[in-house]
Design a protein that fits this description.
With 431 residues, this protein is of the alpha+beta class. The protein contains 18 helices and ten strands. It has helices at residues 4-12, 15-23, 29-33, 37-47, 59-69, 79-84, 87-91, 140-151, 182-192, 199-212, 228-235, 237-249, 253-263, 266-281, 283-289, 295-305, 370-384, 411-425; strands at residues 99-105, 112-119, 124-131, 156-163, 176-179, 310-313, 317-321, 338-346, 353-362, 397-405. 30% of the residues are buried.
Amino acid sequence: MRNAVEQIDAFFGDGKVQRLLNLCRETRALRVCFPREVPLSRFLAWIFDPSQGHGLQDMPLRRLLTAAGRNLEGLSLPLTTRRLLGATSLSATSFYGALVQKEVSLNGGGARLDVLILDPANQLVVAIENKAGAKTSSGQLDKYADALEKQYPGWHRVLIFMDMYGASPDDEAGRWIPLDYQWLTDEMHEAERAPWIGEESRAAIRDFRRAIDFEERPFLHVDEEGDDVLDVLDQHPEIFELMEEWSQSGDKPGEMLEKLQANSAKLGRKALMDLYTAYWQRRDLWLQCLPMRRYAGWLQQIYQRFPDVWRHIKRTSLVFSLPQWEKFAEQGNDHWPLRVAVRILRSSDSDKVTYAVVSVLAWPLSPETLEEVEERALALRKTHLKRNRSLRDEQRRAKLRVDRTTDPNAVGGLIVKHLAMLDETFEGLLD
């Protein structure tokens, strides 16, 4: 068995390791800033401001309100506000006079609302509290809602809680409308194609979408479909055991370097510190790679229950489907209409990894099965997603169930549970 120095030498001497270290250099400016809440919120303020130079006018704000209007189930909103958010009302209403503010202090308090939109012509207040995985403080949303009610009595108040990972608002009164970022990435995808916007705006919208979209490649120059990552993981298991320990320790670089300096034998001290330097400098890469060590165990669990499962593996996500669901897709489309996806999510302010297991329905669907598939999918969505019961208005795909865990050993079981749920729900169609 090789000692630590030999293992580290073999790691750095591996051409595939050197290639990954070079190719994962980040060259996209927005990826450097995102998903921090402040730049996210400032972009939202820009895109929802009809007077800004994106060229989309009031369309993004209208789409925001449309998405909110589809998500009102179980909320305590006045009937007049519900009517304002109806599709017919929104299609006939202009929002060109909207005034957009960022980081607004309400009633002089210390906490600041991320985005506040005022539309005097329609007596409308839109408040957006934006989160990129962080939690709100206790009572924060209630305080914002109470302050806005006092400041704008008689106005329509649309309070929107946006979370990148789809977390629900801590709002007992039911005044905040929950939205995740999927609808926004879909809208930005459509906006990129608008023929009337300029190239600068198109590039900004594209970069923003790529920065928040889980489907996007995490590293621009690394081929996540290639075998390099899996080969490196397979060839250097001891190195990745060390990296996993470092990722879970919570130590800052200086603290870890002090520990290595104090506790390592003299012969291996420099090698360990060189490895830690490479780990920290390319931490985003290794934190994406580490969960892949778990894939083999997950796949073994899945194959025991579904030996014919289809799979597509990327660095930040795994997607599974069953062959019998292919018949639900529109003829000529080779996408998977029903799928179970595993997203590997990392908080913007820590190394903590969350695994989100998501059941998804994707369009276009076969006309022969469209009505029945959507009816059954809607029933699933009503059962498993709180306050999120729309379906037909989704553009490309709709979540049917979401489960999250920080325990990597639980992921395989969750994937099997989702596949079994979909298999049972859609069994018998077109037999």
